[in-house]
Amino acid sequence: MRYALVNPQWNFKGSTYFGCPEPHIPLELLSARKFLRAAAHEVLLIDAHMEQLPLDRVREQVAAFDPDFLVIPTAPSYLFWRCPQPELRVPAQWLRSIHGRARTVVIGPHGSATPRATLEKTGADVVLRGEPDQTLPQLAERPWELIDGCCWRDDQGRLRMNEGLGVTDMAHLEALDFSDYPVEKHAHRHHIFPGNGADHLVRGAELEFARGCPYSCTFCNKTLFRNKFRERPLNAVLNEIDQLISRGVDYIYFIDEIFGVGKNVLALLDEIAKRSVSIGFQSRIDLWDEDSLAQLGRAHCVSFECGIESITEHGREELHKNCRLSTERIQSLLITARKHIPWVQANLIKTIKDDPADVARFQSDLRSSGVWVSEPVPMYPFPGSPLYIETFGARPDEQAWERAHAYYLNLFADRGYSDIQDQRPLPLAELECVS
Q: How far apart are CA 431 and CA 433, in angstroms?
């Protein structure tokens, strides 16, 4: 069978999108391609966002390939599946414009939470819930009712759904092949800012060392995909790092939900220390101590982002952070991290539990030691997150995105949004109609 995997050109005008709008390597598509090729399927991968390809050009390329299945994600890069744009305008437009005779398939966080609504909004034939890396080949190989997380309409238009979720066996995800991917067009260095000590870096890329997270923080949107923690084979990741270095990459950002948990993390850092490449990632400060923070410095870590969320132990408990450190110990470790790493970032969440004056003192104390501390950001009750269930008292239904979006706009219209968001976001109905 022939599969076309397309990453569209993304546009977030008017959106509440939290993520970075720059192109990032679509690891979910490269990973799916690896499994598809292993199953002897033909694959065309087009990254229209990275290559800035217009819709008409992509339509021509897909038509020439004449695929049996056309696959499009509903959010850019695995890195942002946990904080996706709520609207499905872009994937719907691209799917309907380029499908030809192919069966159309959508993957991503939207269908994982609300499959019926995602089918209706995008016009897709199939939604794959959860991780699609290993379930995509199965569309051509077995009855769909036997595929974990497969949702589709039968000949009578009735929704059919396997209640499971796709979960990838990361132990079998060998090194991805970047030989025919436009690595040289990816100049963006994710989470590198002017003046943060890493301005000399030239070309960035993204990789994943592990997938999922063993914690269950209230606000985190990963329950319905990339949930269970799994570590990849060390040699596979090192192979990818060496491929990228040979293509001129000198900075790698690990997209892991939580970098620092796995049993092979320190071995990975030892190997990175031998290579001419810098790294960045998201983590928790309570996964590190003075010795391992020093090891991060030796491994050329230049960007270290930590979710602190609340400045009080009680506040962190309410968010189910399962953090056993005191606030004082957290501050001490962040300051130690800054001695080894040029950019250390502590993220806070906007909550009524934290006194603004106490927050200001916390920020001032850390900033005086060179640690960048965010302004408290508002929480979006993403369908599929524990916060959604806490807020609305039920699991996501087919109006979940509309409900979450309206709630978010009403709650923060007068309090202000994050500084990385559009400050005048549109209601979801308008957002999904904007050209």
A: 5
Q: How far is CA 272 from CA 240, 275, 277, 298, in A?
A: 12, 5, 7, 9
Eight-state DSSP code of residue 353: T
pLDDT digits (tens, 9 = 90+) for 10-40: 999 989 898 899 999 999 999 999 999 999 9
Q: Is residue 180 helix, strand or coil?
A: coil
Q: How far apart are CA 204 and CA 188, in angstroms?
A: 6
Write the CB contacts of 111 (distance below 8 Å, at least 6 apart in sequence): 74, 118, 119, 127, 128, 129, 151
Q: Which residue in 414, 419, 399, 371 sits closest to 117, CA to CA? A: 399
**Which homologous superfamily is 2-161 in?**
Cobalamin-binding domain (3.40.50.280)
Rounded CA gap, 61 and 98, in Å? 9
Topology at the third CATH level for domain 171-431: pyruvate-formate lyase- activating enzyme (3.80.30)
Could you report the per-residue pLDDT of 231-255, keeping only the tens digit for each?
Answer: 999 999 999 999 999 999 999 999 9
Token representation of residue 148: 């974990």
Cα–Cα distance, 168 to 226 (Å, whole number): 9
- Enumerate the domain spans of the chain: 2-161, 171-431
How distant is the alpha carbon of residue 307 from its chain centre? 15
pTM (predicted TM-score): 0.95
